[in-house]
Write a structure and sequence with these properties.
Elements: H1 2-21, H2 29-54, H3 58-81, H4 84-105, H5 113-127, H6 130-153, H7 165-256, H8 261-294, E1 301-303, H9 305-323, E2 326-331, E3 337-339, H10 341-358, E4 364-372, E5 377-384, H11 391-396, E6 405-406, E7 412-413, H12 416-427, E8 431-437, E9 441-449, E10 451-452, E11 455-456, E12 463-464
Parallel strand pairs: 2-4, 8-12
Antiparallel strand pairs: 1-3, 4-5, 5-9, 6-7, 8-9, 10-11
Helix pairs in contact: 2-3, 2-4, 2-7, 3-4, 4-5, 5-6, 5-7, 7-8, 9-10, 10-12
């Protein structure tokens, strides 16, 4: 309890002190420094005045009373009017006059006047601007030396007002502690100010260092992103040019040559397949570019996955029939998920396209939609019995690594589709993961929250699960 009261008392004293000298953010440092000097001198004179009266030094005491009144006035003007510079100069001039009078009427070199010269010098040097410090230094060299020479040459000028030897010693013994205390207080104030400025400078330097580090990391990310975009544009240019050239060449043949019906049919099928692949590539590219330019913001509402899958298969069944691939559906009806219809269609279309690309002739693709009512989420899976992937490929499959890939019938891609699936899934507050075994096929699964009267259920934090983290529903 005592410790608590002591801390409260010290806090109150500190608050009162700040109110007197001015808070760091409210007044300039020079202004606050002058206020500190004034308060030190006011306190010093408040001790010396009754002491001088007690020792019989009435003339000196009266002069100090006048000085005290002047200091209080100057402090008030500085604290509440901001006239600290003019006040400091007046203080310096008046202190010299007062010390000269004190030297003459207070025992000369045998009195405390010379000690107070040193205290005044320290305060002026500590709290005035550097361009005036040489002025105070010269004056503090000339005045004491001149007074000592005057006393040496004309000793009668000095008036010894001490009634006894003990009075002189009492005056000196009280003056020295006062000077030491004032010196300590001024030094402590300056040191605290220095520590505050150093701490502020270090904090500022640390902040700049952190900003530089963030800028460096951002530059690295931008450089990497630009490099990847340049690589993507290069690959896309190559992968778009080849099928377009093939389409143009086939159309020229169909236009100029008289071909047998079976050859014409085969050529048209090849043309349609190349057009589908090119269209898929362009659709993914446009979706990715739109997200890069505008930012991908989903419009969440209720969506029926079976309806989305029906729309996709109405277009993709041709590719499946061409390769003799059977598409099996295992879809639970009356399921609604909270999603963006267009984004969900892009994700499922890419998963099915990917399965068609890497499933061989006469293979099987299974599309399933299952609801987990307990966890209030829906899992959409696309499983194939195609070429499969290694564990390393599974780990990297969604990272956006751009490179040309070829399906079982030389269908081309650049790896953009699965990366786009991951980006869109994250924005739909869902999960996407892959399982695969080389030579046995792959399964891609997507988990989304169920729709329940406008409330989302399911994962609260977007996450991408790697292989074996979550079992695939089938």
């Amino acid at each position: 309890m005592k410790s608590k009261h002591r801390r409260s008392f010290l806090a109150l004293l500190r608050e009162c002190w700040l109110d007197l000298v001015g808070k760091p953010g409210a007044l300039p440092r020079e202004n606050r420094s002058f206020n500190v000097v004034s308060l030190y001198m006011i306190a010093l004179l408040a001790i010396l005045i009754p002491l001088d009266f007690y020792l019989g030094l009435q003339d000196i005491a009266i002069a100090l009373v006048v000085t005290e009144a002047m200091l209080i006035t100057m402090f008030s003007l500085s604290r509440y009017r901001g006239l600290h510079r003019a006040g400091l100069h007046v203080y310096a001039i008046y202190s010299y006059l007062l010390l000269i009078v004190t030297y003459r009427y207070n025992g000369g070199s045998t009195g405390p006047a010379l000690y107070f010269f040193l205290l005044t010098y320290q305060l002026l040097i500590a709290f005035t601007s550097s361009r005036l410090q040489w002025v105070w230094t010269v004056l503090h060299l000339l005045l004491p030396v001149s007074l000592l020479l005057m006393e040496y040459i004309h000793p009668a000028v000095i008036i010894d007002v001490y009634d006894s030897r003990s009075a002189r010693f009492a005056d000196l013994m009280t003056s020295v502690p006062i000077i030491v205390i004032c010196t300590l207080a001024a030094t402590s104030y300056l040191r605290k100010g220095y520590e505050r400025e150093r701490a502020a400078a270090e904090a500022h330097a640390k902040q700049i260092q952190q900003q530089n580090e963030r800028i460096r990391l951002q530059n690295e990310l931008l450089t990497k992103a630009n490099r990847e975009k340049i690589e993507l544009i290069s690959i896309l240019g190559h992968d778009l040019r080849n099928p377009l050239s093939a389409i143009i060449g086939s159309l020229e043949i169909l236009t100029k040559e008289d071909l047998p019906p079976d050859v014409t049919k085969k050529l048209k099928e090849d043309l349609l397949g190349a057009a589908h692949n090119t269209a898929d590539l362009l659709n993914n590219l446009l979706a990715w570019v739109s997200g890069q330019i505008k930012g991908i913001r989903p419009l969440l509402t209720w969506v029926e996955p079976d309806m989305v899958i029906d729309r996709i298969l109405a277009v993709q069944r041709f590719m499946a029939e061409k390769k003799g691939i059977a598409i099996c559906l295992n879809i639970e009806k009356d399921i609604k998920v909270l999603s963006d219809a267009e984004m969900l269609e892009v994700i499922i279309r890419n998963l099915i396209n990917n399965a068609l690309k890497f499933t061989p002739q006469n293979g099987t693709i299974t599309v399933s939609v299952m609801a987990d009512r307990a966890n209030k989420q829906c899992t959409i899976s696309v499983r194939d019995d195609g070429v499969g992937m290694t564990d390393e490929d599974v780990k990297d499959i969604f990272n956006g690594h751009i490179q040309s890939t070829y399906g079982t019938e030389s269908e081309k891609g650049v790896g953009l589709g699965l990366f786009l699936c991951r980006e869109l899934t994250l924005r739909l507050n869902g999960k996407i993961w892959a399982e695969s075994e080389l030579g046995k096929g792959s399964a891609f699964s997507l988990a989304l929250p169920l729709y329940d009267n406008g409330k989302a259920h399911g994962p609260s934090t977007p996450h991408w699960f790697e292989r074996n983290e979550v079992p695939v529903s089938s």
